[in-house]
Write a structure and sequence with these properties.
mainly beta, 4 helices, elongated
């Protein structure tokens, strides 16, 4: 770089800097204005105006790229590999944040900017304009920083003005409006479970789940029975067994009777072993697709059982998308209960569709379907947050738009947006009727 000795501050220069800073709190007279703001997932800088070079001293010509460095109040806006002229003399803020610097992804228009250069202990300020720029000519430009935020760039909200005189167009202004509010946390289903009365034949607990995405995922499946007595349930399934089928219920992938028989060390390593040695568990790595879990009683045993599916590999792009479980619906404790846990992952809250299916199961040759199911959704405090008997009673248009409307008008559905947390959907028969039903939880895109 050329010698900067001529720019060493004198007392007069220092006073000029102070005066310019005081003047910067007043409205600037036209000049060049750059606005830096969040636009969706990107940060975009746009600038326009004219510049009066009177009072500035030409320094050198060089090539620059659009970039930002808040810590020394530098920003260049315009196309990549632009040839520019540097002019010394502006005075004003020495930073507009703590960010150490980032190059723009793209830019267009005229390259205009302001920068700070530290040399021999001093911070020298420069104005950048297109090479050969004619003083007073109109300029405009833009630059985009893709996939980032104002906060990530390390900028501070405010209006920053650099000046080199008091006349028209003898200023450069950077506007950083208040940051937009962060979106609510996104949610993924990380645990799904279903509790029901496990009988024999077709009336076992038959649960399906879907993994979406492109990568394989570690899944832990548990079959719980004896330990349910600790939550004051009577008639629990004494010795549950598990089968895993898939995709699409085809091949038998794994079975387990007592969880300590196989994989005991790996299951304990995840901190999710069943509390009773007679309960079942399967730890498996699964590709995206549809799978079926069957929970039954050993040697034809019956009772209340619980099947659980845990996502123990949440770092991948694949995720649990839904659970659909078929079971017997009775009265009292013998209802069909679907539970799910939503965990935050960084985007918008999840839209959930919960369905209770009964009459249409007859078309699948299921004997004794529940003729008139109802569904109720509860939060983590046990408070009811939504209820539906017949799905067309409310939200008919919205539910139809999902493409997942129940086939029978007597069936039930709830469409809602939920924040992170545990939730429970309970399926009962209207007027305490009983039969076989299906509870389904869908996480919609």
């Amino acid at each position: 770089m050329k010698s900067l000795e001529f720019l060493k501050p004198t007392l007069a220069t220092t006073l000029a800097i102070v005066l310019a800073w005081l003047l910067s709190v007043r409205p600037a007279q036209a000049g060049y204005v750059v606005t830096l703001q969040q636009v969706g997932p990107d940060v975009v800088a746009t600038g326009s105006g004219a510049i009066n070079l009177t009072g500035l001293t030409f320094s050198q010509s060089t090539t620059v790229n659009p970039a930002i460095r808040p810590s020394d109040a530098s920003i260049y806006t315009g196309p990549i590999s632009s040839t520019v002229d540097y002019y010394g003399g502006p005075s004003g803020p020495t930073s507009f944040g703590s960010g150490l610097g980032k190059s723009a992804s793209s830019g267009s228009g005229d390259m205009v900017g302001t920068s700070g250069v530290r040399y021999a202990g001093y911070l020298y300020r420069f104005l950048t304009v297109p090479a050969g720029y004619v003083s007073g000519t109109a300029l405009s430009d833009s630059a985009t920083y893709r996939g980032t935020t104002l906060a990530a760039l390390g900028v501070t909200q405010g209006t920053y003005v650099w000046m080199w005189g008091t006349g028209a167009n003898q200023n450069f202004t950077l506007q950083i409006p208040p940051f937009p509010p962060l979106p609510p946390p996104a949610t993924n289903i990380t645990n799904i479970s279903t509790r029901a009365q496990v009988l024999t034949g077709d009336n076992i607990l038959d649960g399906g789940f879907i993994i979406t995405g492109t990568e394989s995922k570690d899944i832990l499946i548990r079959g719980i029975g004896p330990s349910l007595s600790s939550v004051s349930l009577s008639g629990v399934l004494a010795d549950p067994t598990l089968e895993l089928h898939g995709p699409n219920s085809s091949a038998l992938l794994a079975t387990n009777d007592n969880w300590q028989d196989t994989q005991a060390y790996d299951i304990q390593a995840f901190g999710l072993p069943p509390t009773n040695n007679l309960e079942s568990a399967i730890l498996v790595n699964l590709q995206p697709g549809a799978y079926t879990v069957i929970l039954a009683g050993k040697d034809g045993g019956t009772g209340i059982g619980l099947v659980e599916v845990y996502d123990v590999d949440q770092g991948r792009d694949s995720m649990l998308a839904n659970i659909s479980t078929r079971g017997s619906v009775g009265t009292g404790d013998d209802v069909l209960i679907g539970g799910f846990i939503l965990q935050p992952d960084g985007g918008a809250s999840s839209t959930i569709l919960a369905r209770a299916i009964g009459p249409s199961l007859a078309a699948a040759q299921v004997a004794g379907p529940l003729e008139d199911p109802e569904i109720e959704l509860y939060d983590s405090n046990g408070a009811s947050i939504a209820f539906n008997d017949n799905w067309k009673d409310s939200q008919e248009t919205q539910i139809e738009a999902t493409g997942l409307a129940p086939q029978n008008d007597q069936e039930s559905a709830i469409l809602t947006t939920l924040a992170a947390g545990p939730y429970t959907a309970i399926v009962r028969g209207v007027n305490m009727t009983s039969g076989v039903a299906l509870v389904e939880i869908y996480r919609l895109p």
